[in-house]
Each structure stands twice: as structure tokens, then as C-alpha cells.
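Exercise: predict the structure of this protein bound to zinc ion.
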Amino acid sequence: MQSSTIRWRQSTLPRHDSRFARCVFWFIAALSVTIRVSAQNPQHNGRIVIAASVALDGKGHVLRDTHIVIEGSRIVSIDPNAGPVDYDLRGLTVLPGWIDAHAHVTWSFGKDGKNAGPGGTTQDAAYSAASNAWVTLMAGFTTVQSVGSPLDGPIRDAIDGGQLPGPKILTSFEPLQGRGEQTGTPDEIRAFIRKQKQAGADVIKIFASQSIRTGGGMTLSQDQLNAACDEAKKQGLRTLVHAYKEAVRAATFAGCTQIEHGTMATDDDLRLMAQKGTYLDPQAGLVIENYLLNKQKYLGTPGYTEEGFAAMERVLSLNHDLVQRATKIPGLKIVFGTDAVAGAHGRNAEEFIDRVRDGKVDPMAAMVSANSLGAEALGMADKIGSIAPGLQADIIALDGDPLKDITAVRRVVFVMKRGLVYKNVARAR
Ligand SMILES: [Zn+2]
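Solution:
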């Protein structure tokens, strides 16, 4: 086992490094599971200046011909006269690192190539989870909410502790699985929520509907949902509710923070969400496209049947319909979440393309959903999601203009997280 310490300083990634040096760097990065990396504990207090010809500020504005000045892990100023320039990102589109509100970083395929789910505890599963985190960061996602598996906790902590490279992870530990009356009384549900808080949850995940593959029926009563979301609020935690159809309205009435999926919600439900300020995290395509693409790897594993796959094909068009309707509801806050499972990690940005192409979302709105609006939904708008003085230096660059060609989101050529550069292949074009 390696025990050397690699300091991921700015200086380890010079601007004019050779192709060979980069290869070595990627190789080491891929093996970093066993190597202590101080990526999250920046050693440099130096100043970095990024030159940008086009920068999206994350709030819907375009900054032109400017310089972004970073000290340590923070942006300190936007000043076209600042120099000297360390990273010349002119000709690219610079924007805040993306936020994925819904992923499952521990979910992988097993050694047999089949779906292994998010709960694997073997060494292979741990390496796969580390790899998922790494490719997600490389794809431009600097913050991810990974919810539904207690194993999200250890990887969150490893990344926070600088032992692994990856996006900042927020997680829920054990989700509240709606099982009708068996779920428990409102008091028992409140105790369950407090237990997750004690375990270190950043957010509470609640399943209020069955899988859409088995009909999507409601699995928690209004009283049970009220108890769950109210107790979470008392504990200072947000609530993400997996909800379809009538569960969307019930979760909104219960004061839950955010609805995941939302398939078959009516326009009235969506208007109620807008009124109450409930966030909607719909999936326009990637999650189902990924299942269909990897059908043979999922089929026969728990929860994945031929009938379920047939249902998913129908749900795909319902999801397109949901996103198209949701974007027309005034004031509805739509955030970006992929529900990335095995096969989708590192391809999270495909969901942007689905939203714009199939959901008819305006490209700028799609970007904001994963920047300032996504940050607001996490309660982190003062830390991430915008390019502005005082915010964390989570900055990415795309080779192309996503406002004109949304497929530019596939071409992430620069990734900085908290002032540290993890990817810089801009000049290799
Ligand atoms: Zn999910």
C-alpha cells in the first residue's frame, strides 16, 4: 500500500505541462484511493487569476472579457485588470461548477457486470464508488447530493477529509422508506428522522411513492409525511421526497423541501409547489435512458423486470411532458438532478441535453438550475453556485457555448474545486 502524501497544489498542474506529465497525473489520480491527497485542504494561499472571454455567473448573467481572482479556496474579485493570468480560458465558456441534486455515487455494476445496487461493501464496490465520485467531478460537477444509501456517508467523509478526489457530497444516510402503516406512527417517524440527524445526515430522503416501475402508488399517509417533514425542519434539515402523482401534492402540503421525479403531477400540483416555494427536481431523460442503454446489466437484478422496463419506456415520455409543463409554471423553482445510478456516473451532464432538447427548457435556465438555484435549494447560495466575490472557487469551463449548442456540456475541459485545479485540458484542443 502506498502511504506517500501527494499535495495537489496548483503547482502540480502547470499550465504548460507535457502530455506525459498529464498521463502520470491522471494515473495517480485514478489510484488515489490508497493515497492520501490533500485536495480538500488547500496548502496554497496563493493568488490565481483566470482570464475568461465569456463567463456565465450562475445567476443568468453573462460576464465578458474579465478576470476572476481567487485566493485560497475563494473568489475574491472579478477584475478585468487583474494579473498576471495563470489560466487563460478565453475562447471557452466559464461557469460555476455544477450541482447535481440527486445522484447515487455508491451505485455500481458488480464484477459480473450486473447491477450491484448502492449498498455494496466489498473492496471492489468501494473502488467503484471512488471512481464514480472521480468521474463525476471530472464531468464538471463540484457538488452532488447523493441520497438513499448509508454508504454515501463514508465517501462523503473521505472526500471532505482530503483522502479522495471527488465532488462535495451531501447525503441522507438511511432513507425513510414508505411502507404504509408499517412505516410507523408519526412519533416513530419523528424518532427515525432524529436518528438520521444524529448519524450525520445533511438532508432527509423520503420515499412517498412506490417505484414508477410498479405503478408509483403512494406509500405514506398525509399524517406520516407531515410528521417526517416537520421533524426534519425542527432538526434544521431539508427533505427530498421521491414522489409521483398524488404524493406530489401531499408532500407539498406537508411542507417538504423538494420533490424528486414528480412524474404525473398535475399543473395544479405544480402551481401549488410554486406558491409554497417547494423545489422540483424532475428528470427529463438520463436516468431512464441509462437504464434502457444498460438493460441487460439491470434485468433480473432486484426490482428490474421486463414489465418494469416496459413501464420505463412509457414513463420517459411522461417525464418529457412533466418538464415541458413545469417550465411554463410561473415561479416554480426547478433544480437540476440526474438520479445517476450505475452506468450514468460521469455522464450527468447528458440530463442538460435532455432538458433542453426534450423538456424545452431554455439553455440558460438549465445552467442556472445546476448553479445558483441548485445552491439555493441546498441552502448554500452564500457558498457555491455563482461566480462572485466571497464564494467558493468552484469553476469549470466548457469547450463551446451551451447557450447555442447544449452538447457543449459534454466538453468540460477545466475543473477547479475550492481553488484547486483537478482538470485542465483546455490548451490541448
Ligand atoms: Zn434516486
